[in-house]
Amino acid sequence: MTNSSIRATFLVMVMIVLLLSSFQMPQNVSAAVSTVYSNSGGTITLSNTLIELKWKTTNGTLIGLKNKTTGTQHLGGTLAGNWTLFANTTTDNKWNASLGTMFKGRDAVLSSVNATTLSNGIRVDLAFHGVGGKNISVVQHVTVYDNDPVSHWTTEVANNEPNSTVTAVVSPQLTGVQALSGESLMWPYKEGEIFSNPGTFLRMMQYPVPASMQWMNLYNNNEGLYYAVLDTTAAYKEFRFGYDAGLDPSAGSPRQMSATVWPFAETNDSYISPQVDIGVASEGSWYWGADRYRDWLIHTAQWEKGKPTKAMELDAWYMGNVKAYNGSINLNYSDLPGYIQNVDSKGIHNLEVTGWHVDGFDSYYPDYYTLSAAGGDTGLEDAVADIHANGDNIFFYINNHIADIGSDWYASNAGVANLQKVDGTYFPESYGNGRSFYAMSPHSSAWINQLKDRANFLRDIGADGIWWDQMAEMDAVLDYNSAAGHSSPATSFSEGYKLMMDTIHWDFSNHGANTDYVFAMEGVNDYYSLFADMNGMMWGRSLGYVPQQAPQVTRYTIPAKFLGLPTSGKASGSLDEYAWAFTMGNPLLIDTATPNANVFPRYTDIYKSEPTIYFYGTYKDERGLSLSNSNIKGTTIVGENQDRLGIQLRNLSSVSQTVTVTLDYAKLGLSGSAVSSVVNIEGGAAVAYTTSTNSVSFTITIPANDVKALKVSF
Questions:
Q1: Structural fold of domain 618-713
Q2: Which CATH class is domain 314-400+445-478+492-536?
Q3: 16 pLDDT higher than 70
Q4: Structure pTM?
Q5: Residues carrying CATH 2.70.98.90, the chain
Q6: H or E element in which residue 599 lies
Q7: Beta strand 534-535 with 561-562: parallel, antiparallel or unpaired?
Q8: Cα–Cα distance measured from residue 230 to residue 17, given in angstroms and rounded to the nearest whole number
Q9: Rounded Cα gap, residues 487 and 262, in angstroms
Q10: Are 655 and 643 in contact (CB under 8 A)?
Q11: Over the stretch 297-329, which tens digit does the pLDDT of each residue have?
Q12: Facing residues of 269 across strands?
């Protein structure tokens, strides 16, 4: 053997020793109670009594995710890696960094694995160095706690590659997600969707909009798979469910559940992702996941906005349009007091005014000059005073997303506040009336100051609040306008809307001295609910406009108020036009000049008769509720003091229907309570009922296409 061959053999042996030494020897590590770890036979295992995870030791691919209670293995088929990284290796300036090159975890080598025993669980660290031959490292930290069916993941990235930016990381990337028998997918698109048998079709959306929340849930009647990103910064990210040939082209069309975060880590930067929870539920439906995520929203993220009485006790929202662009004046300012007073007898006292500015609705934003032909500044101020004298409220429309390129403000600020793509171009929008707009960067001080100035004008003339249009409805994007002041292209919307709304709130409230006003917003979003008193939905998507629409998901999960829209397909003025919105206890939108005589003031009278339920209660949807008749849909709302709850029922049939209602109120957090009465809220008539442990049952008849509201007292 030559010296060169001996040297080569020696080097190979050294490399093998080094590689083996980077892994822990086969071992078992026991936590304080039930969590165990092992690394043996080419497989890494982390488990407790409820959940089990397994990885390959070669490339760190997650090959097992088992619900130990039900025995279900959620991953199968071709499994190839559980992360993907993108890096632009031509620039270390995040403001110039396009997506770049894709590096797949399936092609990486697991450099080391380490297990750390905690007092109540075990953390496993999976390290991948030299990603794609670059000086970039990925470390996935996975923690399982005793008696917890959820695994907790964070992903750490270190970029020491010269002249580069790590733009995006998909992690954890669950691949090979197996179908559950009779499965459904809870998908948080806008106000929420539920897909029966979602299959392999790729669904993808970005957050904070159109994704309204940072979690998804695959489930059937018996169990579920939960995936949630617990990001208190609400930065831009993308969610995926289904087969994505771009990220994982493996044979067999393996499904994935994943989230993409955008660290924009420049050379010598490091990044740690928000925590991602992947859990297995041993009960059916989406409520288990919703309860976990809602708890995080309230207690960790603390995104539940404190709301003034005026917001909490909203029951109806009436629309009036002063002028459309290129149209004539519909309502002079002096007409507004009479316009809302005409519906006072219907129980309607809140008016939102659109088109109040030059030159009508969807034009010349953000100038918001008053219309001299409608009465000017003085006429509008006088109208507000008269509305208040009549005991009514008035709210004004402002769009805080787009600027008209023909507005005076834009003429002076062109390009300063625009949302920008990586190539420096803008995001144009148009709405069919001949006007042209650009989307604005919400963090721009020039944009914020103009909106604040016009909001202050409305405050000074006595406005009761503002409808902020498009904020929670238009899609979030990566914004490369570095001059706007946000910290990275991924934080424009999260940092920007927080700065904008905090700034405007501070002035509108006279520095906190007067907080009894309402800020409502178009759309639905968990994070933006921190700045708005009401999620206004999108009026073009009436309830049930597509089969998968599920507004009950966000209504249940997000601790906020929601505007009640009409039911799709119901004629204006029909008996059940607002029946679905009523069962969710929502304040009701009236977007026609003539309110539904079958609904107003009947529904609002029910709301007002039980304010601790309908204004201050907690919506529980169908949880714990069993109905004997499929023609009847129902919901529950637990009262503020947990001494009562409302059961709202609607009859989908054109004939009268009788239903037996059974409620397991332990599932509503009321275990141990004793029922003292059941009454029909309209009229107060007692309803006969029976009880068993943590359960109440009664039988009631509901007229055709009508509703009933029952109060259960404890």
A1: Immunoglobulin-like (2.60.40)
A2: alpha beta
A3: no
A4: 0.94
A5: 12-300
A6: none
A7: parallel
A8: 40
A9: 12
A10: no
A11: 999 999 999 999 999 999 999 999 999 999 999
A12: 159
